[in-house]
Amino acid sequence: MKNLTLTALALAIVVPSAPTWASDMPEDTSGRKDALTVWGVQFEELEYRYSDDDEELGVWNGDAFYGTDDLKFRWLGKGEYAIEEQAYEQLENQLLVQTPISDFFDAKAGVRIDTPEGPDRTYAVLGVAGLAPYWFEVDASLYVSDEGDTSAEFDAEYELLLTNHLILTAGLDATVAFSEDREIGLGKGLSSTETGLRLSYDLIDRTFSPYIGVVHERKYGDTADFAKAEGGGTEDWFAVIGARVGF
Amino acid sequence: MKKVLWAGALGLLMPVIAAAGEYNITVDRVMIDTGDFVKEGIGYNGASPGPVLRFKEGETAKINVTNNLDEATSIHWHGLILPFEQDGVPGISFPGIPAGETFTYEFPVVQSGTYWFHSHSGFQEPNGAYGAIVIEPEGREPFRYNREYVIQLTDKHPHDANRIMRNLKKMPDYYNRKQQTVGDFFSDMSNHGFMTTLQDRLAWGDMRMMKADVEDVQGFTGLINGKGPDQNWTGLFEPGERIRLRFINSSAMAYFDIRIPGLEMTVVQADGNNVQPVTVDEFRIGVAETYDVIVRPKTAEAYTIFAESMGRSGYARATLAPEEGMEGAVPDLREAPLLTMADMGGMHGMDHGSMDMSDSSDMSDMDHSSMESMDHSAMEMEDSEQPGSDMESMDNSGMAGMDHSSMIMPEGGASDPFYAEGSGLVPVAANGGKFLSYADLRAQKPLYEEREPTREIELRLTGNMERYTWSINGVKYEDAEPLKLQYGERVRFKFVNETMMTHPMHLHGMWSILDVGAGQWNPVKHTVSVQPGTTVYMETEVDAPGQWAFHCHLSYHAASGMFRKVVVEGGPDQGNTVGIKAEQDGGDA
Amino acid sequence: MNASKLIVMAAAMSVTGTAFAAGSHGGGHGGGVGEPGKAADASRTIQVEMHDNYYEPEAIDVTRGETVRFVIENRGNLVHEFNIGTPEMHDAHQDEMKMMVEHGVIEGGKLHHDMMNMDMGNGHSMKHDDPNSVLVEPGDTKEIVWTFSSKTTMEFACNIPGHYQSGMYGDVNFESAADTQASAH
């Protein structure tokens, strides 16, 4: 092993003309110096639901994003398609920008466009999403509709690992309205909850995870009354079968 | 004819060193067959790993690299001391090698030992673009062996590296299949009781950290010299021979614990530099490190080289045997390690976040106390770190103040000064014997004269596991200014690992003299592993002008921000020789 | 070196007393490797250089019954041993040397003579005074006179931990081919 001086000498002999002025050095214009750009598409729920009063639904809850650590563009889409009626009970798309506000939470803002069977609505959206202590995935959004009505939605999810592939996921989604929007059947106060319990198995990496589960939907207060007035139910139990898909 | 003779004669008369070490290398798309799966990747001269490049100290290396890919490439000569333009990092040393072009590297070979080379472009390296370098010394080796083999390890994954990066960004635990389950809860409960187990889970849940977060990327097949466990790479020997094994860890992410049941291994070199021989039963090789060991099988039987990944999610296996086809027993993987609160010791930033977020549940008292005491101990740790302190400061004795009572801690109490006190990662030899520690490494012959460092630079290794962002001092490479060093100084780097992962830090172009508390006998390395919750010091003689890369060698950590450009200002060409140290003759008296 | 450390060391030494008994004490019970000779009987002198970590030369030729004076010079930066014995004797002696390193008697380039003279009890010490072996500090020269009275597979070796394993040994070849048994390497 050579010592230092010999090394330096050898280098000097071979590259006598090497410019070593810092100002002449190349700037790093390689991709490494750019922010890492990532995309992803996931359907947390992509399922068939069969209710205790024989209603059949096709349901999805999807999410796609593109962006960097600092700024992501995100699409969120939810839908419930009544198979017999061939009608969308729910059809909701959100286009959002998202940025970190703490180690574990992001803020998001954008628009939500609802185009189900019946009247359409457009909302401005402001929300936070992230990971709360004890591993709860939470998502809270505030909506202001083009009719001037405000509402909020809170979503929480917890995964229990029965094994590293067999996972029990509990989810709760609650909607609270701060003002009534009679036209779309939304009453003031806590309007509805959806509680789900799904047992999934990661069949192909985390790309394809089929599951079975139960979902409980309930309407409250004025919202329940509006539903009853229109001849609908206020509470449903569903058996679900589907798959979580991500790529 | 006469012309040729003349040319020959002129060549002999030329006062330059003959370019004996000349190689032509093509960069190609190749198929990699691990035995478990076949995957397209990138290789050299039609294969992954590429060829073993052999040089002799003192000659000039000349390597013509032809890029047959449809994208730019580069080759970095890992651990070699050379002019920075030859170092092969696109954007820092040179512009890279465009598709279809040939670039000629040419540099003097000023060292000897075991090294390796790999692409420094995108994710070509984890996709297979790596090979080995063996440099024969000018004089004799300070040890003897009858034959030698390169044992080059990697963690070949069925997913393309870009996809792995994307999956980790989407979901940091995408590949982690060693997470704690309900079953683990019940088994812990029967061992430690319900309350302790619950409190343990709550404490970790409060931090939103996983004990099982030891290996980010699982699901790989460990390869040795390109062969999977079933393909069983085999090296032949005759009983009684001394065999030099040149271990190189070319993995993207995996650390390996290596043993050869039935043989003890005498470590004689680390990262290309000879160390005072130390005989061990097992050693851990960090990503990008090399260790040369000498083994001496005395009987005519097959010996298994068994390399378990640190997180026990995979292994590589090869065989030393008197003849082809013989096989030794292949051990089972041992139980996966779990991190402990001690490994979290360095996480300062965390506490605030979780304080803010904790929606005072009835458990909040407990959370608070545990977080506060953690903070406190982390502070003690800093206070105890005097400049120039030795090993004593490294063992994080301050951590004792932490409240472990509610945590499940590992039993046994193996310790290593380069792991946090009470760390769950401390390796233990499978046969109960000697496991190599950094603390055992001593330079065989000091490369530099010992002197006081001219200044200290603190580099906190930082990150956010949930976002899979990795950084230095909280700043990702994309946002960072270069680290400026002055030619001729001796810098003492203080690495403070504030993350829960191990980071193999690699400084290009200059040696990393690891402080093991042995003064002038401190080992000289090119890659220094910093374990979670620890502080590690290394010193660097800033003797190489130009600009260099300095980064965590875990592929996906480097790509997501744990990377710096180092600019060495001044140097011989600027007439700035202030502080150049006197030459030292470290040779035999 | 404080008192408590001494006690710890003494305890350690007595616990591992068996290792010592099994050591390669060439003196009276050399196991057929020969015995110490008188300088006056030496037919010749062999110069051996110690380096880090190898000998020059790495093989010597002797004839049965020959008495040789070895002049051993340490040209390295580390302490080394010159020990004449069979591979098995070296193997057994390595535990003893390991202990000397672990207790700081041998520390890189230094040999702490004061510690070597300590009585460890049970007749053990770390004197390292066996006639078939010398420890040489960097820059020092020492001598051994040895009579190779019987032929067997023999090596001269440094049993400081790691040194023998990494190749710091030399072969003792008995000159008459018919006299020589298979060597160990």
From TrEMBL, chain A:
<dbReference type="Pfam" id="PF05275">
    <property type="entry name" value="CopB"/>
</dbReference>
<protein>
    <submittedName>
        <fullName>Copper resistance protein B</fullName>
    </submittedName>
</protein>
<keyword id="KW-0732">Signal</keyword>
<feature type="signal peptide">
    <location>
        <begin position="1"/>
        <end position="22"/>
    </location>
</feature>
<dbReference type="InterPro" id="IPR007939">
    <property type="entry name" value="Cu-R_B_prcur"/>
</dbReference>
UniProtKB/TrEMBL annotation, chain B:
<feature type="signal peptide">
    <location>
        <begin position="1"/>
        <end position="20"/>
    </location>
</feature>
<dbReference type="Pfam" id="PF07731">
    <property type="entry name" value="Cu-oxidase_2"/>
</dbReference>
<dbReference type="InterPro" id="IPR033138">
    <property type="entry name" value="Cu_oxidase_CS"/>
</dbReference>
<dbReference type="InterPro" id="IPR008972">
    <property type="entry name" value="Cupredoxin"/>
</dbReference>
<keyword id="KW-0186">Copper</keyword>
<dbReference type="Pfam" id="PF00394">
    <property type="entry name" value="Cu-oxidase"/>
</dbReference>
<dbReference type="InterPro" id="IPR011706">
    <property type="entry name" value="Cu-oxidase_C"/>
</dbReference>
<dbReference type="InterPro" id="IPR011707">
    <property type="entry name" value="Cu-oxidase-like_N"/>
</dbReference>
<feature type="compositionally biased region" description="Basic and acidic residues">
    <location>
        <begin position="365"/>
        <end position="379"/>
    </location>
</feature>
<dbReference type="InterPro" id="IPR045087">
    <property type="entry name" value="Cu-oxidase_fam"/>
</dbReference>
<dbReference type="InterPro" id="IPR002355">
    <property type="entry name" value="Cu_oxidase_Cu_BS"/>
</dbReference>
<feature type="domain" description="Plastocyanin-like">
    <location>
        <begin position="38"/>
        <end position="138"/>
    </location>
</feature>
<dbReference type="InterPro" id="IPR001117">
    <property type="entry name" value="Cu-oxidase_2nd"/>
</dbReference>
<feature type="domain" description="Plastocyanin-like">
    <location>
        <begin position="451"/>
        <end position="569"/>
    </location>
</feature>
<keyword id="KW-0479">Metal-binding</keyword>
From TrEMBL, chain C:
<keyword id="KW-0732">Signal</keyword>
<keyword id="KW-0479">Metal-binding</keyword>
<dbReference type="InterPro" id="IPR050845">
    <property type="entry name" value="Cu-binding_ET"/>
</dbReference>
<dbReference type="InterPro" id="IPR008972">
    <property type="entry name" value="Cupredoxin"/>
</dbReference>
<feature type="domain" description="EfeO-type cupredoxin-like">
    <location>
        <begin position="38"/>
        <end position="84"/>
    </location>
</feature>
<dbReference type="Pfam" id="PF13473">
    <property type="entry name" value="Cupredoxin_1"/>
</dbReference>
<protein>
    <submittedName>
        <fullName>Cupredoxin domain-containing protein</fullName>
    </submittedName>
</protein>
<feature type="signal peptide">
    <location>
        <begin position="1"/>
        <end position="21"/>
    </location>
</feature>
<dbReference type="InterPro" id="IPR028096">
    <property type="entry name" value="EfeO_Cupredoxin"/>
</dbReference>
<keyword id="KW-0186">Copper</keyword>
